[in-house]
Amino acid sequence: MNRFEILKKNKWRYISFIIGFLLLVSPFALLIRLEFWITGNLAEPSIHYACLRMPIGWIFRGAVNYLISRPEMTAFIIGVLGLSLFLGPIFCGWLCPVGAVSEAISRIIPLPNKFRIHIKDTNITSALRYGFFAGYITIYILIGLKLSGDWIGSICCRFCASTILQNLAAGIFGWLLPTYGSIEYWGTASIIVLISWLIIGGIFTYGGRGWCLFFCPLGAFSNLLYKVGAKLGFYRITYNKDKCSHCKKCNLVCPMWAIKSDHSVETALCINCKECVNICPTGALTMKWGKENATK
Amino acid sequence: MRYIWAFILAASVAPITYLFSIPCGFSCAQCPLGGICILAYPLIFLGVIIIKFIRKIKSLISKIA
């Protein structure tokens, strides 16, 4: 199957990436705009209002009232995490504009795979991913408990790929909205993130999801819930070893390095993008509901 | 054991990065480096790619010779 056939088979996923961009990234930010319209918020909507760090910070700071006074942020986090439990991390695999941009760059730039980072041991990838997540949560808690000072909170935005995407979008589409002002978080740290997200994570990482794999806390949290949801029998990917022909096509198309050496799928990494399901010639990988035939 | 070390290594990255970036995060290009770090990362990667190519070229020459 060539590149164009893969694109054709997964066309709905790529269309939904564009929809995700329009829903979350300002000057469009249609979802956040709708939330603001319902809640009567007069602020300029942007992806900044879909933040994971701030709600966790509020909980640890004891400022739970913010969760009520900023319903758009609470609703977004609960929505994404709730979807991950019941349907898997479909936000990551189908809507997230940050992952979509780096994945697109990886496909557009034809760098030979030998120059790309690819860890084939899913246990090592998971250990690195969840190790970084643990460190990130530590920072959130420190900010929340005010052990590190309030000012460090704004530094988090400098390390946020979503903010960088928002600033890039403001540069390209800002003229559409005269009242729109970009979030001013450009600086050394932003450049480092831009390089890690698009150059290292996009071009020099197999599948183009380096940022999602190692640095995205929302992605790691979503996958933990997916792992729980899959064990409970919610919507998940399943592998039938009797049908598998060991052609390794799934391994080649998986952007999250989630295919194990026995060709089953690691739910701690999988984003339910269905690229492997669509390319599998024997139907060994399928999506299922229910407790029987639990994910291996 | 490899997995535990990988986890510990990754867990320490975020807190250490924050500590190092506090001074420069607020004053880009105000430091003595004058924003050279913007150029440093692409240069490092370019260097890695060039080294990889040189190795290939060297092995090709040795094969011919």
TrEMBL record, chain A:
Residues of the 4Fe-4S ferredoxin-type domain: 235-260, 261-290
SUPFAM superfamilies (UniProt xref): 4Fe-4S ferredoxins
Annotated transmembrane regions: 12-32, 75-106, 127-145, 151-176, 183-200, 206-226
UniProt GO MF annotations: 4 iron, 4 sulfur cluster binding; metal ion binding; oxidoreductase activity
Top-level taxon of the source organism: Archaea
GO cellular component: plasma membrane
Family annotation (InterPro entries): 4Fe4S_Fe-S-bd (IPR017896), 4Fe4S_Fe_S_CS (IPR017900), Electron_Trans/Redox (IPR051684)
Keywords: 4Fe-4S, Electron transport, Iron, Iron-sulfur, Membrane, Metal-binding, Transmembrane, Transmembrane helix, Transport
Keyword Transport applies: yes
PANTHER family: FERREDOXIN-TYPE PROTEIN NAPH
Protein name as annotated: 4Fe-4S binding protein
The species this protein was found in: Thermoproteota archaeon
